[in-house]
Design brief:
Length: about 300
């Protein structure tokens, strides 16, 4: 895995009462370039150990003097968003992983239809910057709660004009997706129920799967603590209630490939040997889950889990 980047918080502002934008500059040298839809993992020193949360880059991909992220305060989360809202100040140093992209733009699309729910607007901010530079056809459908989850709304109104469509309740997806020009691509990001509804509607209207792209915002959630046995190395670990299985492995010095840390990319797939698993990923089929798990989100739901590590 690539080495972490050291960055400094150069600016921060509240976009809404629950969304904080943070600008990051390199502590030394330059930041790697990134493509629209990329995210970084921010390494957070929480009480239970180092936690890494993934955030989309909202800044212009053509400008790598800084990165920008926008963080929604999640009162029920394990504390990552709370730390970035309440503890991180301008001038603080942070470590982040280099950008990775699991939600890339498709250069050949004749029309880019973007559907965002709440904080799902974040990857689309970098999309819109890139699409404006390419003078590409784009329309944005933005579902938000006015005054709460409407980050960037004024900026988007100015930049997109009539190409921005806003909703405070679930829009008529059939109207958005029916009879669109040949070569259109659809992208959606936001809460899982919105993604499911968009994908179902696209399927019902005959959209080819290759033209429907989605990114879920999911992260490790707390659960019951459990013991972990690593059968190949003979090691025994404990996974705390506020810790993901992946974080417990990393704290013990094990390197497990990972990109999304949200159960969607498939990178961290690990074989389980024994014990009851609560699968929380969006990647494995039920048949695959009988043999594998995604330690970034899934966890044991009994006293002990054994892994083929
Ligand atoms: S890191 Fe992507 S599925 Fe676990």
């Amino acid at each position: 895995m690539s080495a972490a980047l050291k960055v400094r918080v150069s600016a921060a502002r509240m976009l809404t009462p629950v969304v904080r934008e943070i600008t990051l500059k390199p502590c030394a040298g330059t930041l790697p370039g990134f493509s629209p839809g990329s995210h970084v993992q921010v390494h957070l020193p929480l009480a239970e150990g180092k936690v890494r949360n993934a955030y989309s880059l909202t800044s212009d991909p053509a400008d790598n003097r800084h990165y920008r992220i926008a963080v929604r305060l999640q009162e029920t989360s394990r504390g990552g968003s709370h730390y970035l809202h309440r503890h991180v100040r301008i001038g603080d140093s942070l470590e982040i992983s280099p950008p990775a992209n699991l939600f890339a733009l498709h250069a050949t699309a004749s029309l880019h239809i973007l559907i965002a729910g709440g904080i799902g607007i974040t990857p689309f901010m970098a999309y819109i910057a890139a699409l404006e530079q390419r003078q590409a056809n784009v329309e944005l459908h933005y579902l938000h709660r006015p005054g709460l989850s409407d980050a960037y709304i004024e900026e988007l109104q100015q930049r997109l004009g009539s190409r921005l469509h806003t909703y405070s309740a679930r829009p008529d997806l059939g109207r958005i997706l029916r009879s669109r020009p040949l070569g259109s691509h659809l992208y959606t990001c936001g809460p899982q129920p919105l993604l499911d509804a968009v994908r179902q509607q696209a399927k019902a209207l005959g959209w080819p799967q290759s033209r429907v792209h989605w990114e879920a915002f999911s992260a490790a959630q707390p659960g019951q603590p459990f013991d972990l046995e690593l059968v190949r190395s003979g090691r025994h670990l404990r996974v705390g209630a506020e810790q993901s299985l992946l974080e417990a492995l990393e704290s013990a010095g094990l390197q497990v490939p990972n990109l999304c840390r949200g159960g969607v990319c498939g990178q961290c797939m690990t074989r389980h040997v024994h014990g009851e698993i609560e699968h929380r990923d969006h990647f494995l089929s039920p048949a695959e889950q009988a043999e594998f798990l995604m330690p970034c989100v899934s966890r044991g739901c009994g006293p002990c889990v054994s892994l083929d590590l």
